[in-house]
Amino acid sequence: MATHRFDPNFTDHVVGAMGPKTSPRLRQLMTGLIRHVHDFARENELTVDEWMAGVKMLNWAGQMSDDKRNEGQLVCDVIGLESLVDEITFTLADEAKDAPTATAILGPFFRADTPYRQNGDDIVKTKPADGEMAFMHGRVIDFTTKHPLVGATVEVWQASTNGLYEQQDPAQVEFNLRGKFKTDQDGRYYFYCLRPTPYPVPDDGPGGKLLELMDRHPFRPAHIHIIATYDGYRPLTTQIFDRKDQYLTNDSVFAVKDSLVVDFLPRKDDPQAGLELNYDIKLVASESATNGT
Ligand code: MBD
Ligand code: FE
């Protein structure tokens, strides 16, 4: 029985309006969404003005999104939804030492058209004066057999020291701080990049506005985004985080996992970089993910 003083049949009526051709999964999701949204509105006695403020925020997010920017995703990120869905989809037993590389959220600044580069290339095409150069390298390996995966794709992207990704910043050349690499005969990838620095998520849209309204800071800990793929293996989307960062325990989008925290170490005798990051990526074969089917 309804515990509220509104029409007790209304939500069932809306759910029941779905026709027989609705797929079972969509029916389940829409039923849950409608019930929760209705309960949310009743429990909070949501007013027309408050609801309309939410609609405006959604529209604002859509209007400022394009192939270079995904504001709807950022709105989800600041309320922890993308991180929660990531956890649900890729439940990894724990943060044991010997686990496959953990996933992390994609975020709103991925670009599908990032170019391939050669191992050893420098992804820093527009170099900020205060940027610290790092040599990032490692292997892509099969988590179970530990064998190197030859010809695996490793895609990376990072923001510059001014807190902006290249598509947010006209002063950076296109695809600055982005690149796709193929692992060599030993399963290795290697390139030069910046030591990442912390930065605020953009505050010019509804994502930033929501943070302000919730009295929360906008900072993300320094990170590098990675997508690693190899035929026959589960694609991996993740981020790695600098252990020295002050925002490690209070990321504005809740994406940090212990196993993704890395150490930048001093690098000697390399005129191109004073820091080095060694990071192996452990992928899981698709078969073992789906139990042989
Ligand atoms: C970012 O750079 C980011 O990686 C995420 C997940 C959300 C907002 C900005
Ligand atoms: Fe990011």
TrEMBL record:
Keyword terms, alphabetized: Dioxygenase, Iron, Metal-binding, Oxidoreductase
GO biological process, one term: catechol-containing compound metabolic process
Keyword Isomerase part of the UniProt annotation: no
Catechol dioxygenase N-terminal domain ranges (all copies): 24-89
Presence of keyword Metal-binding: yes
Cofactor: Fe(3+)
MF annotations from Gene Ontology: catechol 1,2-dioxygenase activity; ferric iron binding
Domain Intradiol ring-cleavage dioxygenases: residue ranges: 106-283
Gene3D superfamilies: Aromatic compound dioxygenase
PANTHER family the UniProt entry points to: DIOXYGENASE, PUTATIVE (AFU_ORTHOLOGUE AFUA_2G02910)-RELATED, INTRADIOL RING-CLEAVAGE DIOXYGENASES DOMAIN-CONTAINING PROTEIN-RELATED
Family indicated by similarity: Belongs to the intradiol ring-cleavage dioxygenase family.
UniProt-recorded name of the protein: Catechol dioxygenase
Natural source organism: Penicillium alfredii
